[in-house]
């Protein structure tokens, strides 16, 4: 007599030890399609920034499994994506000359890896390494469009000097800028202005280089707020963004997305109560959520994150208001009544900054909110690994 073994029980969000990161693939796909359609309408190439998810599996959602242009923030990402078959990569952090051997190794594998720089010293290091290796190292000049970080202002005297150093070694690829101050543009009007300034700065720098007889193949712009606000990208060749694949509370606070678009959350468990203080304690502290308090500068401070039940429904007025290394503190906002959440209750926390929260985890438990009855505990349909290191 033979017997049929019982079917394996489906893993749900009630099973893994907490805390752990969750990605809702349905929401990510919706976010991905939204920006892809916009880039098509604007007539530019979309070069997603993989620094947020740092995942080959999530990148594959963007292109159906075929290779596509990507942006990375570390050489470890570039190497992992090259191993995954990606051959068109921009490493969008100012190049450290000590890392050039790794850049050259990727170029020799047939990967077009662009580096970023904003000084004569970096340009000299890149061109010397290129000549010694006997190959071109594509380099983009970083343009500062809003005083946020590195780069040259479009009318900087040294712009054409740097361009000429690169061109003489066959290394000048183009210009790149990032509107970092757009994360503080709190209205659609301000975000459109930021997008226009980002475009105009990059195009002006490219125009100066061309006027000096230097070729500019790439004019690259992008941040998640400006990518979703831009209405005219004339003169731009490519658009970059990364946060949009997950979105987060900062983006929701800016109005770039809705709370229901947030695809990343962290599952935590209630481990205690301090009723005398109005606290609910969880096992998810800043090691699970990060120290990022990006919404503190917005009109609605979301603490360390907003609280959902395990099915993904918001719990009104409950916020993660404090964090120590492995403890999270939940409190009711604005005098609201603290809900009854017994020890052992699982919750999901929406993060302020998806990039920072994702970086606290080795991988993602994947769910699909379009494939379950409302109110049920989501099933885990996959587990995806993250790339780490530099």
TrEMBL record:
SMART domains: D-ser_dehydrat. Gene3D superfamilies: Alanine racemase, D-serine dehydratase-like domain. InterPro entries: Ala_racemase_N, D-amino_acid_metab_enzyme, D-ser_dehydrat-like_dom, D-ser_dehydrat-like_sf, PLP-binding_barrel. It comes from the Bacteria. SUPFAM superfamilies: PLP-binding barrel. Keywords: Lyase. Residues 263-368 form the D-serine dehydratase-like domain. Belongs to the DSD1 family. This is DSD1 family PLP-dependent enzyme.
